[in-house]
Amino acid sequence: MEPSSATIGYRQYAGDRDLQTVIELIHSELSEPYVVYTYRYFLDQWPQLCLITHAQPTSDISIGIGIGGQATPRNVLLYKTFLNIGCWSDDPSARLLHDFEPSVNPLTVQSCIDKCDSLGLALAGLEFGQECFCGNAILNDQQLIPRANCTTACTGNAKQACGGAGAINLYLNLLKPFVTLGPPFMVTRFKQWKFLECTQDDVANRQLPTLMDSIPHEQMSVQRCLDACAAGGFSVGALQFAQECWCGNVALPFPSVDQAKCNSPCTDEANEFCGGPGFNQVYFLPSANFTTS
User: Start and end of every WSC domain (predicted)?
Assistant: First the structure.
């Protein structure tokens, strides 16, 4: 073959038929060769990162090998008016953001932010490469953690970082910067309202009959609920499951349970409790009716 007629060609590693070629080419450069299991581990998992070079047109003789590295996905710092505010801890039993959006699939930073923005929510979070969360408050006293925890590639764009395992890449809408953080506490007084007790509700026989569903789930706070109850002419109000507001004119008290059962942070005020799953955080006005035993 004339030297001027030869060129270099490349092809991807093609499995076991190339294994011995790869071993021989690398062994020649090593003072202490690897065992075959080392090759199999890397080549079976990342065959796309191994390129075998050969002289063309005689492609049956391999003359070299290239092992590539996979770039770490990068954080998108700003999209629309949403700014990346870091990597935060998360927990399936105590979520940082209240609203999970499973319809955002495949996931990119843009698709998750677009969804949260369309819902009018101030926060968007991406986790584990494939999960999109939205909300108006940073819940459950979750904390900033090193960005190295948020390097999982998005399913819809491998060049973008979409959080990690138990780590959420968080974005804040700069037009709505007044989000709240935990830890939450029990609001005991608001205007003329006083906190009374934590009680267990019954879905089939509600303690308070009127659900104030005019309050969006992601905008719940003690103040907003009790103002709504007062405007409706009710003397008893209760918050439940972080997002529900119930009102009525009923006799008090109800049978109490441990106050620790009312431990869900409000969806719009992360520093306040708003009842619990199936548990009412009950407030009353001076006009409320109390029964005597």
Answer: 81-174, 192-286
Q: What span, in angstroms and rounded, lies between the C-alpha atoms of 25 and 19?
A: 10
Rounded distance, CA 141 to CA 264, Å?
Answer: 11
Give pLDDT tens digits along the chain (293 positions): 454 555 777 787 788 888 888 888 777 766 666 777 677 767 776 777 777 877 666 555 665 666 665 668 999 999 999 999 999 999 999 999 999 999 999 999 999 999 999 999 999 999 999 999 999 999 999 999 999 999 999 999 999 999 999 999 999 999 987 788 878 999 999 999 999 999 999 999 999 999 999 999 999 999 999 999 999 999 999 999 999 999 999 999 999 999 999 999 999 999 999 999 999 999 999 999 998 65
Domain locations in the chain?
Answer: 3-67, 78-179, 189-284
Residue found under tokens 């103002």: 227
Contacts of residue 28, defined as CB under 8 A and 6 or more positions apart, other chains included, come to none
> Is the peptide bond prior to 216 cis by the omega test (within 30 degrees of 0)?
no
3-state secondary structure 44-113: HHCHHHEEEEEEECCCCCEEEEEECCCCCCECCCEECCEEEEEEEECCCCCCCCCEECCCCCCCCHHHHH
CB 67 within 8 A of CB 50: yes
d(C-alpha 108, C-alpha 161), whole Å? 9
The angle, 0 to 180 degrees and rounded to 10, between the axes of the packed helices 36-45 and 16-27 is 120
Pairing of strands 137-138, 180-181: parallel
How far out from the chain centre does Cα 110 lie?
15
User: Could you tell me which of 122, 164, 171, 125 has the C-alpha nearest to residue 147?
Assistant: 164
pTM confidence score: 0.70
- Contacts of residue 176, defined as CB under 8 A and 6 or more positions apart, other chains included, come to 122, 136
